[in-house]
Write a structure and sequence with these properties.
heterodimer, A: alpha/beta, Amidase signature (AS) enzymes, 2 domains, 11-stranded mixed beta sheet, 11 strands, B: mainly alpha, Histone, subunit A, two-stranded antiparallel sheet, flat
Chain lengths: 485, 95
């Protein structure tokens, strides 16, 4: 086995025992990137020199006989909307093409403190707006399972990098499914924690009441290791929760005996590929065999969640992206006679089509005369979607659904029809609307492309979500399948 | 319902976003189809339902009003496309 194919746990054991050096592990990943990334295009930039310098420090520590932490010396990749001090952080937008943040995002600071090795920044849909990573201003990322297909999005670069073993794990961000959907389409594990579990300080804001940072990894256990480090309260993010952070690896081994699983009847139907439905059905059977009690449940407002999302999200986008005025930082137009023209042109020349569409939509639903009809209405229906989850979690411990109605689609297939692209998030969006945690884990294949199983838990129910995911993973070997690249 | 060209122009102005004539047409039809889709929310009875703006349950998260030195003011100013003497430069506002 090549070192770049190791999990966090395996790599940690080999580093601690001296079987491999941290520098060696990073070098192997960097070599893998130079070999396969010309085809995959997962990385926007690779920070090899810094990675090796950081790895050297870990090696020194091990040579001195010191114990290292679970993420120490392990190479990872960051989605390009996570600020890393001194490294261009562009959100795959021309607006921030040359933007070098003077500080680290809290998650980056925490990972650095834990000794993590950053290999580089990964491609994404511009400002995390999209479900295919095709909205990047710079490059198209290819799905490692089929280079003609998209990796999903918006954390498509992070998912493709993990799936092709270019790194051991990666971070992404999830506003409507942007960690889980690419994880599903690339056959890796992706976790969206409870809203507020992980600090968003230093994450380029897209829709602030929905955004959450999460790990993409090769196993459920690895996700738990990363979550242990990145979770917790941060005085710089007033929405971050104050609950204590448990050791998420400790509860993984608990049996599913008598655990109550709900299968929502609304997560099926139109647009759902038969091969996906089949794999989800098999997964439910598998969970029954593991001792879980499965019952049908209903979340009647599910069908409205996507419409709620496409009002609230653009409204928040239009407010958040108002900061890009070309004056304090970012892209600036050459052609402007006065301040107003400067704003209009700087923004018009640097934002891509999807970003402009969402800014327009957001400005419209917030404008005088339409606020009540759209924005307030959506906030009210949001309450009803949340109530559905509250009620169902009185009856069951977790919910099982598909992540996406189809596996990876062809590059270009949905690019010209925004609404059809939006519909690929139909099963992931309700989770963000409610702010609950959910994971995507590999559960089989349809047309030789990976299918993801979504496990949704109640607020702060990461332990249950990870436990069910881990038990399923132990009983199957889908997570061990790797693309031929 | 279809947005008019004038409505598109009005929204673009609110958002301080320059749009070309072809784009006005494109936005009018794309935004209309999305608005048409989201209008299904009108079917939901929301009488006496409180709106949700965030899900943390926190109210007025406060901190002490203490000055913290960032220490990289110079770097921040230098990020500005135009700057002079430690100040950020903008276009004229009053002609």
């Amino acid at each position: 086995m090549n070192f770049n194919e190791l999990t966090i746990k395996e790599a940690h054991d080999k580093l601690q025992s001296g079987d491999i050096f941290a520098t060696e592990l990073s070098q192997v990943c960097l070599r893998r990137i130079s070999e396969v990334d010309p085809q995959i295009n997962a990385f926007l930039r690779v920070t090899g020199e810094q990675a090796l310098a950081a790895a050297e420090k870990v090696d020194e520590k091990i040579r001195r006989g010191k114990k290292i932490g679970p993420l120490e010396g392990i190479p990872m990749a960051l989605k390009d909307n996570l600020s890393a001090k001194g490294v261009i952080t562009s959100s795959a937008s021309r607006t921030l093409q040359n933007y070098v943040p003077p500080y680290d995002a809290t998650v980056v600071q925490k990972l650095k403190k834990a000794g993590a090795i950053m290999l580089g920044k990964t491609n994404m849909d511009e400002f995390a707006m999209g479900s295919s990573t095709e909205n990047s201003a710079f490059q198209i990322t290819h799905n490692p399972w089929n280079l003609g297909c998209v990796p999903g999005g918006s954390s498509g670069g992070s998912a493709a990098a993990v799936a092709s073993d270019e790194c051991i794990y990666a971070l992404g961000s999830d506003t409507g499914g942007s960690v889980r959907q690419p994880a599903a389409l690339c056959g890796v594990v992706g976790l969206k924690p409870t809203y507020g579990r992980v600090s968003r300080y230093g994450l380029h804001a897209m829709a602030s009441s929905l955004d959450q940072i999460g790990p993409l990894a090769k196993t459920v256990e690895d996700c738990a290791y990363v979550l242990n480090i990145i979770s917790g309260h941060d005085s710089r993010d007033s929405t971050s929760g104050t609950n204590a952070v448990p050791d998420y690896t400790e509860t993984l081994a608990r049996s599913l005996h008598n655990l109550k699983i709900g299968v929502p009847q609304e997560y099926a139907g139109e647009g759902m590929e038969e091969g996906v439905a089949e794999q989800i059905k098999n997964a439910v059977e598998q969970l029954k065999e593991l001792g879980a009690k499965v019952r049908k449940v209903s979340l009647p407002h599910t069908k409205y969640a996507l419409a709620v999302y496409y009002i609230l999200m653009p409204a928040e986008v239009s407010a958040n992206l108002a900061r890009f005025d070309g004056i304090r930082y970012g892209y600036a137009t050459e052609a402007a006679k006065n301040l107003e023209e400067y704003y209009l042109n700087s923004r018009a020349e640097s934002f891509g089509p999807e970003v402009r569409r969402r800014i327009m939509l957001g400005a419209y639903v917030l404008s005088a005369g339409y606020y009540d009809a759209y924005y307030k209405k959506a906030q009210q229906v949001r309450t009803l979607v949340i109530n559905d989850f509250k009620q169902v979690f009185r009856k069951v411990d977790v919910l099982i659904t598909p992540v996406s109605p189809t596996p990876a689609f062809k590059i270009g297939e949905k690019a010209s029809d925004p609404l059809s692209m939006y519909l690929s998030d139909v099963f992931t969006v309700p989770v963000n609307i409610a702010g609950v945690p959910a994971i995507s884990i590999p559960c089989g294949f349809s047309r030789n492309l990976p299918v993801g199983l979504q496990i949704i838990g109640p607020w702060c129910g990461e332990e249950q979500v990870l436990q069910v995911a881990y038990q399923y993973e132990q009983a199957t070997d889908w997570h061990k399948k790797r693309p031929n690249i | 319902m279809k947005l008019t060209k004038q409505q598109v122009e009005y929204i673009a102005h609110l958002a301080r976003l320059g749009v070309s004539p072809e784009e006005k047409e494109k936005f009018a039809s794309e935004l209309s189809s999305i608005l048409n889709y989201v209008s299904e929310l009108n079917k939901v009875d929301t009488e006496n339902v409180e709106p949700t703006s965030q899900v943390t349950g926190f109210v007025n998260v406060m901190r002490k009003d203490e000055v913290e030195k960032f220490g990289q003011e110079k770097e921040l100013i230098e990020m500005a496309p135009e700057h002079q003497g430690g100040c950020v430069k903008t276009k004229v506002i009053l002609e």
